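quick one, 244 residues, struct below
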Amino acid sequence: MKKIIIVFALLAFAVSLNAQWVQQVNPLGSTLTGKIQFVSSTEGWITLGNGKLLHTINGGNNWLVVTPEPIDTLFSLNSSASLNLSFINSSTGWIICTKGSSSNPQGAVVYKTVNGGVNWSKVTIPAADVGFSLQFVDASNGWILIFNSNYIGGGIFRTTNGGTNWNAIYPPAGGFPFFINSNTGWLLPKGLTTSSDTIRKTTNGGVNWFAPWGTNSQVSLNSMYFSDIDNGWAIGTNGIIMKT
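---
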């Protein structure tokens, strides 16, 4: 029995040695990185602050630079709150960028690929100064968050044809929604909230919203994730973690 215990202890120690992180080589050196998404165990994407991407097909052993925009100067907002990358499979994905520079933004643009990043199409979002976030749940349905002087706290647009056309939707408070499918999504209002509008939910793609949860104390929630239509988590200031 002692020998069996020792063997299992050695195996557990060997596994713990393998559970480590290895730094990989960024071909652009210290260029600002943003969001990362893997579509399989070997293929993944990273957004960069200059509107380019890094792409790997071998688990990150090598990264290649991908340039969706060959002409315009771009920048991407790579804060912890911005979600500027969304792939639904190895072939089809979108990124959102801004023309110009952070000090002189000149319009939001969405780039789409349907062949794994070999070619990209571009759609300029009307009346948008800065592109902030985007999310797609399938090949047709997606949402973006843009900022300009006409949208205090940001404006949310929706597409139902893969990004060819975009139409504004009007949630009850600032913030960016998280959708689990084309109809059901949740919204964290921006800033301090009360029991009247802490978390909002839609079941018709953002046309209408209702408040399924509130609290008597003021909290500030800043990030949310749902693994399916029932199970979700939200985090915020003062170490708050919530689960539904």
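Residues 192-196 have pLDDT under 50 and may be disordered.
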